[in-house]
Design goal:
There is one protein chain. With 296 residues, the chain is of the alpha/beta class. Helix 8 links the parallel strand 8 and strand 9. Helix 9 packs across helix 11, helix 9 packs across helix 12 and helix 12 packs antiparallel against helix 13.
Protein backbone atom coordinates (compact mmCIF):
# COMPACT_ATOMS: atom_id res chain seq x y z
CA UNK A 1 0.00 0.00 0.00
CA UNK A 2 1.20 3.49 -0.86
CA UNK A 3 2.12 5.77 2.03
CA UNK A 4 1.55 8.83 -0.13
CA UNK A 5 -1.40 11.05 0.81
CA UNK A 6 -4.69 10.43 -0.98
CA UNK A 7 -5.55 13.34 -3.27
CA UNK A 8 -8.89 14.71 -4.40
CA UNK A 9 -8.71 16.91 -7.50
CA UNK A 10 -11.57 19.30 -8.30
CA UNK A 11 -11.48 20.92 -11.75
CA UNK A 12 -10.08 19.02 -14.73
CA UNK A 13 -9.73 21.66 -17.42
CA UNK A 14 -6.83 22.62 -19.68
CA UNK A 15 -4.52 22.87 -16.67
CA UNK A 16 -6.15 20.51 -14.19
CA UNK A 17 -6.18 17.41 -16.37
CA UNK A 18 -2.45 17.22 -17.13
CA UNK A 19 -1.54 18.30 -13.60
CA UNK A 20 -3.64 15.56 -12.02
CA UNK A 21 -2.17 13.06 -14.46
CA UNK A 22 1.35 14.05 -13.42
CA UNK A 23 0.44 13.24 -9.81
CA UNK A 24 -0.83 9.83 -10.91
CA UNK A 25 2.46 9.25 -12.72
CA UNK A 26 4.27 10.19 -9.50
CA UNK A 27 2.44 7.42 -7.66
CA UNK A 28 -0.39 9.35 -5.99
CA UNK A 29 -3.91 7.98 -5.71
CA UNK A 30 -6.08 10.70 -7.29
CA UNK A 31 -9.87 10.90 -7.15
CA UNK A 32 -11.28 13.65 -9.32
CA UNK A 33 -14.47 15.53 -9.95
CA UNK A 34 -15.45 17.97 -12.67
CA UNK A 35 -18.62 18.80 -14.56
CA UNK A 36 -17.54 17.35 -17.93
CA UNK A 37 -17.88 13.57 -18.32
CA UNK A 38 -15.14 13.38 -20.97
CA UNK A 39 -12.67 14.89 -18.50
CA UNK A 40 -13.65 12.31 -15.88
CA UNK A 41 -13.17 9.58 -18.49
CA UNK A 42 -9.73 10.98 -19.27
CA UNK A 43 -8.77 10.88 -15.58
CA UNK A 44 -9.95 7.29 -15.26
CA UNK A 45 -8.02 6.29 -18.38
CA UNK A 46 -4.88 7.79 -16.83
CA UNK A 47 -5.29 5.66 -13.72
CA UNK A 48 -7.30 7.98 -11.51
CA UNK A 49 -10.76 7.52 -9.99
CA UNK A 50 -13.77 9.51 -11.17
CA UNK A 51 -16.13 10.70 -8.45
CA UNK A 52 -19.79 11.55 -8.84
CA UNK A 53 -19.69 14.64 -6.64
CA UNK A 54 -17.39 16.95 -4.73
CA UNK A 55 -18.44 15.30 -1.47
CA UNK A 56 -17.56 11.86 -2.80
CA UNK A 57 -14.20 13.05 -4.14
CA UNK A 58 -13.00 14.74 -0.94
CA UNK A 59 -14.45 12.45 1.74
CA UNK A 60 -11.37 10.28 2.23
CA UNK A 61 -8.75 12.66 0.86
CA UNK A 62 -5.74 13.81 2.83
CA UNK A 63 -5.15 16.62 0.33
CA UNK A 64 -7.78 18.40 -1.78
CA UNK A 65 -6.53 20.35 -4.81
CA UNK A 66 -8.74 22.75 -6.72
CA UNK A 67 -8.12 24.22 -10.16
CA UNK A 68 -11.12 26.21 -11.39
CA UNK A 69 -11.47 29.44 -13.41
CA UNK A 70 -12.14 32.22 -10.90
CA UNK A 71 -13.26 33.30 -7.41
CA UNK A 72 -16.98 32.53 -7.90
CA UNK A 73 -16.16 28.95 -8.88
CA UNK A 74 -13.82 28.53 -5.90
CA UNK A 75 -16.54 29.77 -3.57
CA UNK A 76 -19.13 27.51 -5.23
CA UNK A 77 -17.06 24.34 -4.71
CA UNK A 78 -15.73 25.27 -1.26
CA UNK A 79 -18.84 26.39 0.56
CA UNK A 80 -22.29 24.94 1.16
CA UNK A 81 -23.62 21.56 2.19
CA UNK A 82 -22.18 19.83 -0.88
CA UNK A 83 -18.89 21.73 -0.82
CA UNK A 84 -15.36 20.89 0.18
CA UNK A 85 -15.35 22.38 3.67
CA UNK A 86 -18.46 20.50 4.81
CA UNK A 87 -17.25 17.16 3.48
CA UNK A 88 -13.45 17.11 3.86
CA UNK A 89 -12.10 15.27 6.86
CA UNK A 90 -10.60 17.04 9.86
CA UNK A 91 -6.97 17.95 9.28
CA UNK A 92 -7.16 17.76 5.49
CA UNK A 93 -5.05 20.19 3.48
CA UNK A 94 -6.86 22.21 0.81
CA UNK A 95 -4.55 23.55 -1.93
CA UNK A 96 -6.29 26.01 -4.21
CA UNK A 97 -4.28 26.33 -7.43
CA UNK A 98 -6.84 28.54 -9.18
CA UNK A 99 -6.05 32.17 -9.99
CA UNK A 100 -8.42 34.25 -7.86
CA UNK A 101 -8.46 37.44 -5.83
CA UNK A 102 -6.13 37.55 -2.82
CA UNK A 103 -9.08 38.41 -0.59
CA UNK A 104 -10.97 35.29 -1.68
CA UNK A 105 -7.98 33.21 -0.58
CA UNK A 106 -7.78 34.99 2.78
CA UNK A 107 -11.50 34.46 3.38
CA UNK A 108 -11.30 30.80 2.36
CA UNK A 109 -8.44 30.15 4.77
CA UNK A 110 -10.40 31.72 7.63
CA UNK A 111 -13.54 29.73 6.86
CA UNK A 112 -11.56 26.51 6.52
CA UNK A 113 -9.81 27.05 9.84
CA UNK A 114 -13.21 26.93 11.54
CA UNK A 115 -13.81 23.52 9.91
CA UNK A 116 -10.44 22.07 10.86
CA UNK A 117 -9.12 22.27 7.29
CA UNK A 118 -5.78 23.86 6.44
CA UNK A 119 -5.37 25.94 3.26
CA UNK A 120 -2.66 27.01 0.84
CA UNK A 121 -3.24 29.33 -2.10
CA UNK A 122 -0.92 28.07 -4.83
CA UNK A 123 -1.62 29.55 -8.26
CA UNK A 124 0.67 28.60 -11.11
CA UNK A 125 2.34 30.06 -14.18
CA UNK A 126 3.53 28.25 -17.26
CA UNK A 127 0.35 27.59 -19.20
CA UNK A 128 -0.79 24.32 -20.68
CA UNK A 129 2.71 23.40 -21.85
CA UNK A 130 4.11 23.95 -18.35
CA UNK A 131 1.34 21.82 -16.88
CA UNK A 132 1.95 18.97 -19.32
CA UNK A 133 5.72 19.10 -18.85
CA UNK A 134 5.46 19.51 -15.03
CA UNK A 135 7.63 22.63 -15.11
CA UNK A 136 5.15 25.12 -13.66
CA UNK A 137 6.12 28.02 -11.44
CA UNK A 138 4.07 27.72 -8.25
CA UNK A 139 3.63 30.73 -5.98
CA UNK A 140 2.27 29.80 -2.56
CA UNK A 141 0.59 31.61 0.32
CA UNK A 142 0.03 30.07 3.75
CA UNK A 143 1.80 28.48 6.70
CA UNK A 144 5.35 27.10 6.45
CA UNK A 145 4.38 23.71 7.93
CA UNK A 146 1.60 23.24 5.39
CA UNK A 147 3.92 24.28 2.57
CA UNK A 148 6.50 21.76 3.74
CA UNK A 149 3.88 19.00 3.72
CA UNK A 150 2.73 19.96 0.24
CA UNK A 151 6.21 20.36 -1.25
CA UNK A 152 6.51 16.79 -2.61
CA UNK A 153 3.18 17.28 -4.39
CA UNK A 154 4.33 20.58 -5.84
CA UNK A 155 7.57 18.93 -6.94
CA UNK A 156 5.53 16.59 -9.15
CA UNK A 157 3.85 19.56 -10.81
CA UNK A 158 6.48 22.26 -11.20
CA UNK A 159 10.08 23.37 -11.01
CA UNK A 160 10.02 26.79 -9.34
CA UNK A 161 8.13 26.52 -6.05
CA UNK A 162 8.21 29.38 -3.57
CA UNK A 163 6.35 30.21 -0.36
CA UNK A 164 5.67 33.91 -0.87
CA UNK A 165 4.10 34.78 2.49
CA UNK A 166 0.82 34.39 4.40
CA UNK A 167 -2.58 33.49 2.94
CA UNK A 168 -3.30 35.50 -0.22
CA UNK A 169 0.37 36.11 -1.02
CA UNK A 170 0.44 33.48 -3.73
CA UNK A 171 -2.49 35.15 -5.44
CA UNK A 172 -0.87 38.57 -5.18
CA UNK A 173 2.28 37.28 -6.85
CA UNK A 174 0.17 35.54 -9.51
CA UNK A 175 -1.59 38.83 -10.23
CA UNK A 176 1.80 40.45 -10.78
CA UNK A 177 2.76 37.53 -13.01
CA UNK A 178 -0.31 38.03 -15.16
CA UNK A 179 0.45 41.75 -15.44
CA UNK A 180 3.97 40.99 -16.71
CA UNK A 181 2.76 38.30 -19.10
CA UNK A 182 0.04 40.47 -20.64
CA UNK A 183 2.36 43.43 -21.15
CA UNK A 184 5.00 41.10 -22.60
CA UNK A 185 2.57 39.51 -25.06
CA UNK A 186 1.35 42.96 -26.09
CA UNK A 187 4.92 44.13 -26.74
CA UNK A 188 5.64 40.99 -28.77
CA UNK A 189 2.44 41.46 -30.78
CA UNK A 190 3.34 45.05 -31.60
CA UNK A 191 6.84 43.95 -32.64
CA UNK A 192 5.38 41.26 -34.93
CA UNK A 193 3.15 43.72 -36.76
CA UNK A 194 5.99 46.26 -37.02
CA UNK A 195 8.37 43.64 -38.41
CA UNK A 196 5.90 42.26 -40.94
CA UNK A 197 4.89 45.68 -42.20
CA UNK A 198 8.59 46.48 -42.59
CA UNK A 199 9.12 43.44 -44.83
CA UNK A 200 11.46 41.62 -42.45
CA UNK A 201 11.58 37.82 -42.30
CA UNK A 202 9.52 37.25 -39.16
CA UNK A 203 10.95 33.84 -38.27
CA UNK A 204 14.51 35.12 -38.46
CA UNK A 205 13.67 38.28 -36.55
CA UNK A 206 11.96 36.48 -33.68
CA UNK A 207 14.81 33.98 -33.44
CA UNK A 208 17.45 36.67 -33.04
CA UNK A 209 15.30 38.79 -30.73
CA UNK A 210 14.72 35.82 -28.47
CA UNK A 211 18.46 35.30 -28.17
CA UNK A 212 19.07 38.76 -26.75
CA UNK A 213 17.75 40.99 -24.01
CA UNK A 214 14.32 41.05 -25.67
CA UNK A 215 14.05 37.29 -25.22
CA UNK A 216 11.55 35.87 -22.78
CA UNK A 217 9.64 32.74 -21.84
CA UNK A 218 6.60 34.40 -23.36
CA UNK A 219 8.33 34.79 -26.72
CA UNK A 220 9.69 31.24 -26.56
CA UNK A 221 6.27 29.78 -25.76
CA UNK A 222 4.22 31.98 -28.09
CA UNK A 223 6.54 32.45 -31.08
CA UNK A 224 4.82 29.75 -33.12
CA UNK A 225 1.42 31.18 -32.25
CA UNK A 226 2.50 34.48 -33.77
CA UNK A 227 4.14 32.91 -36.81
CA UNK A 228 1.25 30.57 -37.61
CA UNK A 229 -1.61 32.72 -36.32
CA UNK A 230 -2.50 29.68 -34.21
CA UNK A 231 -4.60 30.89 -31.32
CA UNK A 232 -5.87 27.57 -30.02
CA UNK A 233 -6.25 28.29 -26.30
CA UNK A 234 -3.53 27.36 -23.89
CA UNK A 235 -4.69 30.27 -21.73
CA UNK A 236 -7.84 32.00 -22.88
CA UNK A 237 -8.31 35.75 -23.30
CA UNK A 238 -11.41 35.39 -21.09
CA UNK A 239 -9.24 34.20 -18.20
CA UNK A 240 -6.56 36.81 -18.73
CA UNK A 241 -9.30 39.45 -18.73
CA UNK A 242 -10.36 38.13 -15.33
CA UNK A 243 -6.76 38.26 -14.10
CA UNK A 244 -6.22 41.81 -15.33
CA UNK A 245 -9.28 42.80 -13.36
CA UNK A 246 -7.76 41.18 -10.27
CA UNK A 247 -4.41 42.97 -10.60
CA UNK A 248 -5.87 46.40 -11.41
CA UNK A 249 -8.29 46.17 -8.49
CA UNK A 250 -5.62 44.93 -6.07
CA UNK A 251 -3.22 47.65 -7.22
CA UNK A 252 -5.86 50.31 -6.65
CA UNK A 253 -6.43 49.00 -3.14
CA UNK A 254 -2.74 49.37 -2.22
CA UNK A 255 -2.18 52.62 -4.12
CA UNK A 256 0.06 51.25 -6.89
CA UNK A 257 -0.12 52.90 -10.32
CA UNK A 258 -0.21 50.52 -13.31
CA UNK A 259 -0.34 52.86 -16.34
CA UNK A 260 0.86 50.35 -18.94
CA UNK A 261 -1.06 47.52 -17.32
CA UNK A 262 -4.27 49.56 -17.45
CA UNK A 263 -3.87 50.08 -21.20
CA UNK A 264 -3.22 46.40 -21.83
CA UNK A 265 -6.20 45.49 -19.64
CA UNK A 266 -8.38 47.59 -21.95
CA UNK A 267 -6.90 45.93 -25.04
CA UNK A 268 -7.66 42.52 -23.54
CA UNK A 269 -11.22 43.69 -22.82
CA UNK A 270 -11.58 44.92 -26.40
CA UNK A 271 -10.62 41.49 -27.74
CA UNK A 272 -13.41 39.93 -25.69
CA UNK A 273 -15.86 42.50 -26.99
CA UNK A 274 -14.89 41.52 -30.54
CA UNK A 275 -15.61 37.86 -29.89
CA UNK A 276 -12.06 36.63 -29.29
CA UNK A 277 -12.44 35.71 -25.62
CA UNK A 278 -12.11 32.00 -26.29
CA UNK A 279 -8.76 32.37 -28.07
CA UNK A 280 -5.30 32.08 -26.56
CA UNK A 281 -3.93 35.29 -25.03
CA UNK A 282 -1.37 35.46 -27.84
CA UNK A 283 -4.38 36.62 -29.88
CA UNK A 284 -3.52 40.11 -28.61
CA UNK A 285 -1.78 40.11 -31.98
CA UNK A 286 -5.21 40.32 -33.60
CA UNK A 287 -5.97 43.53 -31.73
CA UNK A 288 -2.72 45.13 -32.93
CA UNK A 289 -3.44 44.01 -36.47
CA UNK A 290 -6.89 45.58 -36.34
CA UNK A 291 -5.46 48.84 -35.03
CA UNK A 292 -2.92 48.72 -37.87
CA UNK A 293 -5.60 48.44 -40.56
CA UNK A 294 -5.76 44.69 -41.15
CA UNK A 295 -9.04 42.84 -41.56
CA UNK A 296 -8.95 39.92 -39.11
Amino acid sequence: MSTLPKIAWIGLGIMGSPMSENLIKAGYQVTGFTLEQDKLDRLAAAGGTAAGSIAEAVRDADVVITMVPASPQVEAIAYGADGILENAKQGALLIDMSSITPQTSVDLAAAARDKGVRVLDAPVSGGEAGAVEAVLSIMVGGEQADFDQAKPIFDALGKTIVLCGPHGSGQTVKAANQLIVAVNIQACAEAVVFLEKSGVNLQAALDVLNGGLAGSTVLTRKKDNFLNRDFKPGFRIDLHHKDMGIVTDAARNVGAALPVGAVVAQLVASLRAQGDGGLDHSALLRAVERLSGAQV
